[in-house]
Write the structure tokens for this entry.
Amino acid sequence: MRLVRWKPIRGGRLAGPAALVLLVVACSGSPTADRGAGTASEGATAAGGESGAALQEVYAAVEGLTGDERRQKLLELAEEEGAEVSFYTTFALEEAEPVIAEFEEDTDITVDVYRAPSSSFMQRVLREAEAGFAGSDVVSSNGTEMVLLEDEGLLAPLETPMDDDLPESYLQSERWAPNYLNVFTPAWNTNAVSPEEAPEAWDEVLKAENLSLEITDGAWFMELVTYFRQEHGMSEEEAIALFEQASDGAIMIDGHSVQNELLAGGEFDVAAATYMHRSMQFVNDGAPVAWEPAVEPMIASPNGIGIHRDASRPATALLFIEYMLTDSQELMGELGRTPVFADAPSGTGEYEVIVLDTNRYGEERQKWDDLYDGIVGGGEPAS
């Protein structure tokens, strides 16, 4: 795995949603790591083009192949492409590195990695597209950003049998697949909340005393309002009122990791929506934190992975993605991430899960973020 710094790409003006994204992230920090290669290709910004034709040839070459036979064919094609692949991701390096190392060891393919926070990741991908620079073969970020990249025409069609066994609600695009989940679950401090007092339903969570809300959870909020409407017969106004009442005196936190730490430290009794994998880690470390029996349905936001429209190594990109959707799932669980397959280690098991409708949230984001901002703005910030 190779990590080097990014040299910014210069280009013309952007219009539409891409320009808005770059405006929002213009003041963001520097990326943490990067690959220095990436080839400027004439005509890279034309959707499809030579890259699209090459990818279709790959699909034709592996059509009908499954299992080891499919893997072997992709390995042969990857060798012809130079046995390297460029991967742009928001996946934390301490978790990405062992996953990539396992892939490299199993395939003898070198992965060039650019890792950055979401804002810097989006800035780079959009800047490179603006400049006609084909830098990445594979891109991976949270589902809402994958929707934006798809809307910008920057994702190639993804044809793989590796996600056939996933529930239909997990498969929200023909251009990217979920490679792990960020699962929201309530958690509580066991020094303050006894097993008998633990919340058993979402309305009980929102009525809990000494509650904490995370201030960026607009997507979680949207899905729960929808759940209350569909499953409890509430109007949208009635469901929103539950959150407004919950915010009265609630402690507002910016960041789920910080929220878990403060919960373990006894700063509040109940956190409405922690990441399941982080709460599991705290439980395993012996902290006074519990999240089971889980409040159902869990709300999960998918992290996505896809082939860049201008990928110069499409066979290697497809091989890498299929590896992430199969071989890497067990290691994802060992690293504390939530695999997309429920029966994988650290998966969601038999729990009921509602997966965020990323397309709907992309279309209605302004509405739900504004509503949620108005709610959490009425609480108490963490000291």
Remarks:
- The CA atoms of residues 203 and 242 lie 8 Å apart.
- The two ends are 41 Å apart (CA to CA).
- The longest strand covers residues 177-189.
